[in-house]
Amino acid sequence: MPTIADMQLGQKATITECSSDAIPFKLLEMGCLPGNKVQLLQFAPFLDPLYLNIDDAFVAIRRETAALICIEFGPDE
Amino acid sequence: MSKQINVALIGNPNTGKTSVFNALTGLNQKVANYPGITVDKKEGLCKLPRGVKAHILDLPGTYSLNASSLDENIVIELLLNKNNKDYPDVAIIVSDVENLKRNLLVFTQIKDLEIPTILVINMADRMVSNGISLDVDYLEKALNTKIALVSARKNTGIDHLKTLIANYRDLSTEPCLNASEIDKSYFERLQNAFPNQQLYKLWLVITQDVNFGKISRQEMDVAAFKTKSKSDLKRLQQKETVKRYQFINSVLKEGQTIDASKATGLRARLDRITMHKFWGYAIFFVILLSIFQAIYDWSGMPMDYIDASFAQLSEWTKATLPPGVFTDLLADGVIAGVGGVVIFIPQIAFLFLFISILEESGYMSRVVFLMDRIMRRFGLNGKSVIPLISGTACAIPAIMATRNIESWKERLITILVTPFITCSARLPVYLIIISLVIPEGRFLGLSYQALTLMFLYLIGFGMAIISAATLNRILRFRSKSFFVVEMPSFKVPLVKNVFITVFEKTKSFVFEAGKIILAISVIIWVLASNGPGDAFNKADTIIETDHANLSQLEIDQKVAAYKLEHSYIGIIGKTIEPIIRPLGYDWKIGIGLVTSFAAREVFVGTLATIYSVGADSPETLKQKMASEKRENGLPVFTLASGISLLLFYAFAMQCMSTLAVVKRETNSWKWPIIQLIGMTLIAYFISLIAFQIIQ
């Protein structure tokens, strides 16, 4: 299954699964929850960290965390 | 006494909570520490309509009541303990109109605690430009609360907020959703086990144990109620969060409309530039360079003025008061010592000015983003950039700022290397030595002296990075590394916020550091004005018999120098002289190094006192240092000894307060001792090499 780490610059997707055991709880509280939209806004140099818009929250996370959040590319994209 | 209302300000970071706090209290505020821990406790007073007063507590920013850091834990500790004297009569949740959805999460949790709650929607002036409109009446009803639309920037809505606080008894304490629906049978059992307790409170105590584990449990003991595994509880918490967001989304769907076409895209454009893989770094570098140039150039004039004023004041005291021990103490001990502190106000104020502008504008988070990958290579975290930059003000708040680094290893390394960063206490030492040994002149429009200062900041940073990389290899413990950073929108910093920060920080530097410096100045003066045995007490006769052919003035000078050498402080300096001579220092500098341990800037005050004892002319400290000679007649402060001294101050661990904070933050004496020995050895050998090469 694709994860946020597989996204291209500017691409949009929907979060399908994120386990509370694997990723920081703070990220869930910021809106990283199944069903919410995510867009990749920018990479830092060396493609890490990633700058995302998750459900209208602007958040930066590392690639290793991004690889734990499963997504589904939206039909409109 | 009229009744005081306890008000707690709660909200996510970056919602302008501090602006609301400043708008309510003005300069009527103070910063203290929570007992036992070093988290800043900001409180202030606010006058409400009809003569009622409110005591306002600005709690640390938190995303929710699930604590993941010490700062966030404070909020929960307070809200769970009704007997706490700060327990709020009314809670104000500050939210930002652009991030209402996320900000409401903590709001719904506070409501579940049945505390009267007011919702502040801040930055209301941005609604039009962002195409946001709100149905306030609907939101008030749906959320069971009163709403104040506030713009701390435009200073609107504050009066309405004050009225709402004064009428806090009218607020509803009804929760706005029923979170226990996520697992009905579990919550039923929980309530049955503790029938007298509020259900949500019980749930918080149980889950905080899982998350953080430090909650004080005076009121209830839930240890017996561990029927779920950690992982199950976490899953339940996730369900709770989802549930809350479902509720918030349904409310906002009705009460908020966003016209996306109105969004300007300014944020995206600024982000693209400030986080560009080349321009991002270039901008950051230029900003740092301008800060140092500004600190150097703009503060020169007021500093010269202060320096001259204190020299005059000291002279005036001597001329006006009757001669005697008290006058000498006042003129040479107290006034010289105070002057040594006051002179750095311009520079420290400028430094805090720039740091607070970078923080307020939202730029600092971009730097965190840009630097994370690079910092990680050295065992640090992008968030280490904030401690490292605040370290340029003072290592103590910087070390406390490491608390939001979630990984213990990355946090420990940041704590250990932060003291290498040039703090404002080193600045006084640097400035006076640079002005003595570095020639004037300009290179590409930048003065040599400013470039030297910049270089000193850079080697401090460089040493921090090298040590971090070394520690990263040596320290062998596994710890999960997390990195979640919110990127706030760009804002023009609020003049009022910046002003209050600069004022409060400068004030605390002057008074906190000033107290120590003043005390030490007096002690040094006493130690320098007294000595054991005949060598000190009969100095006049010894000199007069040895140099009978000299003029009275020359004899006086010789007596003074002889006395200082044989005073108590002279003996201390002489004792350590053999160790520091290879670095190019004499025993007077040695005294300065010893007293620096209280705080580095004491060095300047110490020299001011030492050189004042026995000097008659009202020279400034700089003139005195420049004319100071070794026994062989060469000046004490040359390029070689000056640079050696600069390097020593750059690397040595000389601050007791920092060591105390490191002890507290790492909960062991092991790390501060390692820091002290390691840094001082590095400093000694680098200064030794530098002096021997340049000499």
Rg of chain B from C-alpha positions? 30 Å
Question: What is the second-level CATH architecture of chain A?
Answer: Roll
Radius of gyration of chain A, taken over Cα atoms and rounded to an integer in Å = 11 Å
Look at the structure and give the CATH class of chain A: Mainly Beta
Largest interface: A-B, 29 and 39 residues
Overall pLDDT level of chain B = 83
Number of helices of chain B: 29
Low-confidence stretches of chain A: none
Strand fraction of chain B: 5-15%
> What structural category characterises the helix and strand content of chain A?
mainly beta
Structural class label of chain B: alpha/beta
Domain count of chain B, please report it. Answer: 3
- The number of E-state strands of chain A comes to 5
Number of domains of chain A: 1
Characterization of the model:
Chain A has 77 residues and is mostly beta strands. In chain A, 42% of the residues are buried. The longest helix of chain A is centred in the middle third of the chain and has 5 residues. Chain B has 695 residues and is α/β, with parallel strands linked by helices. Helices cover 59% and strands 8% of the residues of chain B. In chain B, a hairpin with a 5-residue loop joins strand 3 and strand 4. Chain B is elongated and about 100 Å long. Chain B starts with a strand and ends with a helix. The chains are: A mainly beta (77), B alpha/beta (695). Chains A and B meet through helix 1 and strand 4 of A and helix 3, helix 8, helix 9, helix 13 and strand 12 of B. Strand 4 of chain A pairs antiparallel with strand 12 of chain B, so a sheet runs across the interface.
